[in-house]
Amino acid sequence: MKFLSPVLLVCRSESFNFLGLHCLRIIGLRRVMATVQEGKELNRLISALSPALIIIDANFYWESTPRRIGLLLRDRPELNIAVCNFNTVQPERLVDFLRFGARSVIDFNYGVGKFRRGITQTIHNQAYTSGNVQDAYDDLPDNKPELRVYTTAREDDVKRLMWKCRNSKEIALILGMGVKTVETHKTALFANYGVANVSEFNRQCLLLGEMGKDDV
């Protein structure tokens, strides 16, 4: 496959990157950059590389990746994202990637020929879904998943004060709790929103429509 524009492969580990690169080389795709970065670093890499296609390994932080794809596409709808199953993720679980907005979900285990066809179509901005995943998708009710994150009442209190740029000591004083407890709530919020710091967290809240001008 001769293709001049770059392709970015995102996997959870160097070993999975090696496996993914091997699968892409089998079908003749050469100009591929692999990374294990996520969050802000991944966004920076995408901006610098301007890839024609972003291939995300289905095992990449599997529990939260489908939703993160949805958030990334809400922020940058022009991105062309395909999810590839290089391992043994079941079709019923791969469906979530389609529901959250990935253009294509391609199962390498479905055969090299169909894998090549899926990558080729997606590179040229045509959606492709492997048959086993499509069957599982067709069996689902016709409803859209929510991007919102479900948080506890106490986490909501911490969240609103974080929007106002309050630090942990100030939040602890206002809410009458220990600083360590505030830090625990912040760590849980960062993990659930898939971010690393307060600025990324506030940006995600803006994208989700949770945070408005009156909240800052």
Structural features, described:
The longest helix is centred in the last third of the chain and has 15 residues, at 179-193. This protein is an alpha/beta fold and 216 residues long. It has a 5-stranded parallel β-sheet, with helices on both faces. Helices cover 50% and strands 10% of the residues. The protein has 10 helices and 5 strands; from the N terminus they run E-H-E-H-E-H-E-H-E-H-H-H-H-H-H. It is elongated and about 60 Å long.
List the keywords.
single chain; 216 residues; alpha/beta; five-stranded parallel β-sheet; elongated
Largest sheet, described in full?
A: 5 strands, parallel
In total, how many beta strands?
A: 5
Summed over residues and divided by their number, the pLDDT gives a mean of 82
- Main β-sheet, spatial strand arrangement: 2-1-3-4-5
Q: Assign a percent range to the helix content.
A: 40-55%
Judged by helices, strands and strand pairing, the structural class is: alpha/beta
